[in-house]
Structure formats: structure tokens, C-alpha cells
Amino acid sequence: MIAQTPMALAAAGREDRAALPLHEVKAADLRTFPASAVRYIKLGQGGRWAEQAFREQIIPFGYRPVSHAACANAEWGKVQGQLEAMG
């Protein structure tokens, strides 16, 4: 299996284009690499986080019932309790 990474444009020598939205990246700028496994990450309902994810090269995700403050303060026992309460 071959995967293409639009954010890794070094093969085309165009690091300045790394922040382009995916739909503006040209096929000629894509670099391929072998992938042993592929995972799907849903980027929000209707892809609403996709633009930000590609622009900032992050993987946003959310569990609304889990306290952001508990995560930011590394209160993992509290986070675990919140996740367990979700079922």
C-alpha cells in the first residue's frame, strides 16, 4: 500500500506550500511512502475540523463530557472516571 502526504512536500522542494488546504495541493507535489497500516480519523461532523487539522498539522478530537482542565492539569484519574461514566 502506498500513502501520499500532502503536508510533506519536500520532494517537490516546496516547503512554503505545506500550509495549503488539501484541495489546493497538486498531485505532482505529493510524496509517497510505504504504509503497513492505515487508520481513519474522522475530522469532525462533515469534516469541519479538516481545514484546521491540515493547516496546523494537528489531529483535533474531543470528548465533550471530559473536562479540558483535568486533561490540561494531567489529572488522569479524574479523566478516567469521566470516561468510565460515559460507558
Question: Which features characterize this protein?
Answer:
87 residues; two-stranded antiparallel ribbon; alpha+beta; 3 helices
Structure overview:
- It contains 3 helices and 2 strands.
- With 87 residues, it is of the alpha+beta class.
- A two-stranded antiparallel ribbon has the order 1-2.
- The longest helix has 11 residues.
- It is elongated.
- About 6% of the residues have low confidence.
Radius of gyration: 17 Å
Strand order in the sheet with the most strands = 1-2
> Structural class, please?
alpha+beta
Overall pLDDT score: 75
- First CA to last CA: what distance? 36 Å
DSSP helix count?
A: 3
Task: Bin the strand percentage.
Answer: 5-15%
Profile the largest sheet.
Answer: 2 strands, antiparallel
Sum up the overall morphology in one term. Answer: elongated
Task: Describe the structure concisely.
The protein has 87 residues and is an alpha+beta fold. Helix content is 26%, strand content 9%.
